[in-house]
Amino acid sequence: MKNACLLIGEGVDALTFPLRKFTALIESGGYEVEETRILSVKTPDTVKAALIDLKSGYDNVFLFSPSSLLSKLRGLLEEAFSRNCFQGGEKGLGAYTEEGKSLFLVSDGERGEEYLRGVCLPYLDEKYASKHAKFTLRAVGADPTTLARLLAQGEGLGGGLRFLHRRLYGEDVVEIVYDQNAPRMLTDEVLRLFAEGLGESLYALDDTPLEEQLVALLKLRGKKLAVAESFTGGGVGRRVVSVAGASKVFSEGLNTYSEASKIKRLGVSEYTLNSYGAVSKETAYEMAAGLLSSGAQVAIATTGLAGPESDSSGLPVGVCCIAIGIEDKVFVSRYKLSGDRTEITETAINYALFLACKQLKKM
To answer: Which of 60, 110, 244, 286 could pair with 268 as two cysteines, CB 3.0-4.6 Å apart?
Structure first.
């Protein structure tokens, strides 16, 4: 069974189409994508030739297009598939099936994603009498070399296992797709391999994002969280309150950007700021301690330099300090993050949520 993807657009829309996301969905369903092509509807002869070529070489072809173009593509598709083999849906979505070959028309946006998940993949499962399952591992701060080695080792186990990996803002998400008939010993070995290899950077053996896990842990421990942010600008608090039910465990969030604000709102001492600077483990410690002294049971504090330029301290862009306070203890970590302003900030937010989860699990 061989599968290919073809993206047809008018130009810029082809660049903005979430093709990587959609192909990842196909692969997470257990179906490997062996070839991907991007063509323009403005060259119809090339599109027709590609459709005929893909039909001859592949069992299943996923044709992705902006929704505005789907109806226009019907004429081109009927050059490769018979007119009467189209099983269409509204607004152009549908599938051509002929002589064991299948072509699926998938639009962009939520509607296309729902069609891919709810129609295309179940159709292939029925077509090939296959049932797939998957489990997800999530980690923050994992060593890239170690993770690459683990992925290679996992693939070497055989048994039809497929590993889908994505990394964003310091967080690694690994989806392991396998046949439901695979021996339990094989999947247990994969879990053991990654659990031992990733160590403390592994925070979830399911597809639970950091903010959801943090809210769940706070509820489990019966604790309320307060946040004091400097360079993350409210990002930590925003992630927490995005979770339904967060109001039960989130008490307040402060954006203490200036030194004066840190002194007034959190009780950070002028001596600490003058001696160590705003971006220091000492200042992060006192920010978290200030929240705890005000009645918070769990505290997160962030301070750092997101760039694009440093400040008068001369510290390199990307340096940040994150403090986690629980009851009467404060734990501080210092990092040197890389990337642009957004990458540094979002990575620091992930680290802050991860470190809070890590300390709550130890309670």
So the answer is: 286
Closest CA to 346 of 337, 355, 357: 337
Domain 3-127 CATH assignment equals 3.40.980.10: yes
- For the chain, what's the residue count? 363
Among the listed residues 200, 140, 143, 145, the one whose alpha carbon sits nearest the alpha carbon of residue 170: 140
194, 266 contact by CB (below 8 A): no
So what's the architecture of 132-204 in CATH? 2-Layer Sandwich (3.30)
**pLDDT score of 356:** 98
- Cα 280 from Cα 260, distance rounded (Å): 16
Q: State both tokens at 228.
A: 């004091």
pTM above threshold 0.70:
yes
Residue 204 has pLDDT above 90, yes or no: yes
Domain with CATH 3.40.980.10 in the chain: 3-127
- As a whole-number percent, the residues of the chain with pLDDT over 70 amount to 96
Segment holding 201, helix H or strand E: none
Residue tagged 């734990």 (tokens): 331
Tokens 């005000």 — which residue?
Answer: 294
